[in-house]
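so im writing up the methods section and need the GDT1 family protein record in one place, dumping it here so i stop losing it
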Amino acid sequence: MIAALLLSFGVIFVAELGDKSQLMAMTYALRYRWWVVLLAITVATTAVHAVSVFFGHFLGLSIPTDVMSILAGLAMLVFGLWTIRGDHLDDDESTKAERVGASVFFAVMSSFFLAELGDKTMLATITLSTNNDWLGVWIGSTIGMVAADALAIAVGSLLGRHLPERIIARGAAALFFGFGAWLLWEGLSDASAVTIIATLSAVVVLLGVGTLYLRHLRRTAATDPADDAAVHSSR
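--- predicted struct ---
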């Protein structure tokens, strides 16, 4: 349980760096009391990760460990590419943050809950819970996300919106690629030749498509200044 807790804390903390929910946390903290925002985030995160662990735990019971390690490694590569791409608040989310009235707690809690559904931190929690202690993953992932968002709230309160997003995104992506390589090594250590070839082919395709997509975003930003804000953290 302790090992699962520490692993989940580290992975989710890294996943949350530069994520959309961190930007939302900073946006809310600039307008409302930090402890209300942090409490609302904690409640929403606990609920989302409880759902993630439930599905991941029962999914993991029916899938061999080596297969799950390979899938987890591929997922970590996706998270790394996703982190390089970066996140931004669209107009609707920014407006929502600005218009919250008296019920700040419930507004922040509901918006974070909805924002995390299908997000990479939720997918990472599901992945981790498939072959690790579910309680440790739940506690560790929840603490990891709350800690990362608390950091965003603190930094946002002190420095406003001026954060080194490029450095944060690239550092987090490098850690994800490291996690991915480690998990793939574990999954392929005793695998058959067919499995190794198929997995390596999937890695090449995944990284190739991801690289082409990131280049497309950069070219779009260079040719259309109006889109620059949407991909600013991917440069």
